[in-house]
Design a protein that fits this description.
By secondary structure, the chain is α/β, with parallel strands linked by helices. The protein is built from 12 helices and 12 strands. It has 2 domains: 199 residues, inorganic pyrophosphatase (n-terminal core) (Alpha-Beta Complex); 127 residues, Roll (Diaminopimelate Epimerase, Chain A, domain 1), CATH 3.10.310.30. The strands form 2 sheets. Strands 3-2-1-4-5-6 form a 6-stranded parallel β-sheet. β11 and β12 form a beta hairpin. α4 runs antiparallel to α5. The longest helix has 24 residues. It starts with 7 loop residues before the first helix and ends with a helix.
Length: 348
Amino acid sequence: MMSNGLPPSAWRPLLDELQRDVPFLITTHANPEADAVGASLGLYYLLQKLGRRARIVLEEPLYDSLKYLDPDRVCRSYLPERRLELLPGEVHWLLDAGYMHRLGKLEEPLRAHSMRRLCLDHHVGNGDGFDVALIDTGASSTGLLVAELWDACGVTFTLEAARVLYSAIATDTGWYRFSNTDGRTLRMAARFLDMGVSSEAAYGEYREFRSWPAMRVIVAAMQTLAAKLDGRLALFYITEESIRREGISYSELEGVVEVPRIVRDVEVIALVVELSPTRCKLNFRSKGGVDVNKIAGRFGGGGHVRAAGAKVEMPLPQVLERIEWEVAQELAASHRSQGNRSPDSAGA
């Protein structure tokens, strides 16, 4: 049963790769979220069912908020002090990213090896010359693409695969609230629910895990929330000192960037998490016509039109100032573009 996604011919190059009796090394981008981890585990379970050897290596240990996806601890973290040893003929499979530099600390050791490279992703861009790359920007999530790969292989989902792939899809669509939610996505999600996956349990495990110290950090962040650019930009930040004082993990900040979405006039949301006095993590969200992927790209990051991020070597005050300037430019460009549309073209 297919979900009306890509045509069968689009899957042929990857299906040919799966015919080869070789081990697979599955990786994803640094600081992975539920889609990246769920997709990686979903692919791992597929390879297992096909009788292939596979392993998952991440840049760092899983965030606490994502450990529910991997109760059997399939995901391993890379240890820089130990050389990354490859198995004979091992094939590298990158998920949820189209560029090798998104691997973080894993990029250098993987580039040091001559190996066959595959990519499956739903983000714009593919610049690293993979041997086989399937990039479908129309897919709501990489988890959806991995689920469709199961279908393309003619393999029946296991419950453990359905569980992780459901979480991957649900989280990347904001629990089916975001504009990337479509019939293709909902049809796949419905199949997983029919198998016995619990949406309530998935949401609870992903969202309802925070500690009281984390809530104090979030409250402090809300006190920094500023309405910029006539209220179209919601800009706020979390300091390194508050995280250190409360002793929380960065994983407990997952989803905080979404809070200002409830404000009617907000078009862009930017949350800055201070990692050190000279380093910050940026999270962007868009509700309107602004492409935050472009904004994140100017900081060396990327993502989607409606959700993107970056890490920068820059002190917090400077980051906040630059974000406001960059968003102002993008808002102006977006509004000019909308203003230039004729009534006929707007309805085309």
